[in-house]
Structure formats: C-alpha cells, structure tokens
C-alpha cells in the first residue's frame, strides 16, 4: 500500500462553517420558523467538527474511514478531513537508533562485539502504518539482523590486502546502509546513515588477539629495519670502493656487512670491539 493524499479543507473555514450551521439552527429554533430544519443544521455542524485536526510540522496524519485507508495529511496546520474518520499520527522527523552490543562471529570465526547507530525517517506513512505491525520495533530488529549479517562477511582485521571491519569502516558503513534500506523499504522507512559505534574482540580472546597484533607489528617493524639496514650497508660499501679508501676482498667485505648489520638491526646499542690484529 502506497501513501496518497487525503481530502482536506482548511480548518478555519471548517470552524466558520460550524458556527454558521449552529447559528442558523439556533435562529430557526428560537424564531420557531422551522424547528426541524434548525435541528438538522445543528446536527450537520457536528460533521466538520468531528474531523477537525491539527497537524504539527514534520508530522503526518493517516486517515481511515470504517477500516479503509482514506489518505494521509502531511501539511502542518488546522484541517478538516473526512467526517467520523479515524486518525493516527506518524512522525516524519529524523530519528536515531542505537543498537545494543551484539556478540557475533566474523568470517574467520572469531567472536567479536559490535554495535551501530542507524539514522532513519519515515517517508511513506501508509506502509509504516499498515504493512508492518510496529515500524519502530521493525527497524530495531532488522537493524540488528543486518548488522549481524554484515559482521559475518568480513574479518575483524585483515593481515593481507583485503576488506576488514576495523580497516574499512567507510565501506562497511555503506554496505550496512544498503542492506538496511533493502530490509526497511517495506516499512516505508528511509535509511539516511548507518555507522559502527563499537567494535572489539570478545573478552575471551581479546588478550590472545592483542598478542597477535603486537607480534604482527613487531615483524613489520623488523622487516622495515632490515630493509633500511641493507640499503645503508650497500651505500657504505659502494662509497668506500668509489673513493678508494680501502681495498676490500670478499672475506673483508662479508665481515664488514656482518658487523654493520648487527649494529644497525640490533635492538640494543652496539659495543665496539677494536681489532688490533689482522683477519689472516
């Protein structure tokens, strides 16, 4: 069911009509010109009075008439609509939903804790009122379901070139928004934004994963140090040979490379040893 505009009349015009009907009916009763017509006019004044409605900004009023959908009033102000109709308010304001911290498994099977905030608003009041039982509860349940599904598709952290929940928050947020929009369109809800607000390893594996991250960081740092050390050794040897400071055979060159690498790569300060003899 799609939203459509309900029949409305300006509320102030409706009030004037009510006053005119009541005044005319009373005058006919008082003057006894036509008492029956006067009673009829007073009864007719109840019709516009029964449907007088005030609508606030960013609010919709869903109108039903004996079980049938008669339309929606969106424009703020005072209006008169179908007499003796049922009216239900639906907020069109932008709202936030903060999900609870969910415990799920990522694609590698690691238990993680994840939560998100969803920014949404109602764009179709008819669907929000009739196609789902309670659209606010529907948003909550579908948001948590979509969050679980997205979390199961990616690892918490990628140690290779690939998407991860921690390293690609923008991409994950966009995918979460797309999936939420697909799920919530049936309720007439538009998803404006969805972002992760909490992401962490579960407590039972947090310490082990921290050690893994530390080990990975140490290995990456060591690889960078070795790469720089090799470049420094190559530069030192080539410069000594170009300037002719000393002639190095293969054995002396190997010894120099060994000493330089140990001095540069070691995580402790090097203690120099003075050699007063010869290698031979």
UniProtKB/TrEMBL annotation:
<feature type="domain" description="Band 7">
    <location>
        <begin position="50"/>
        <end position="213"/>
    </location>
</feature>
<feature type="transmembrane region" description="Helical">
    <location>
        <begin position="36"/>
        <end position="55"/>
    </location>
</feature>
<dbReference type="InterPro" id="IPR001107">
    <property type="entry name" value="Band_7"/>
</dbReference>
<dbReference type="InterPro" id="IPR036013">
    <property type="entry name" value="Band_7/SPFH_dom_sf"/>
</dbReference>
<keyword id="KW-0812">Transmembrane</keyword>
<dbReference type="Pfam" id="PF01145">
    <property type="entry name" value="Band_7"/>
</dbReference>
<protein>
    <submittedName>
        <fullName>SPFH domain-containing protein</fullName>
    </submittedName>
</protein>
<keyword id="KW-1133">Transmembrane helix</keyword>
<feature type="transmembrane region" description="Helical">
    <location>
        <begin position="7"/>
        <end position="30"/>
    </location>
</feature>
<keyword id="KW-0472">Membrane</keyword>
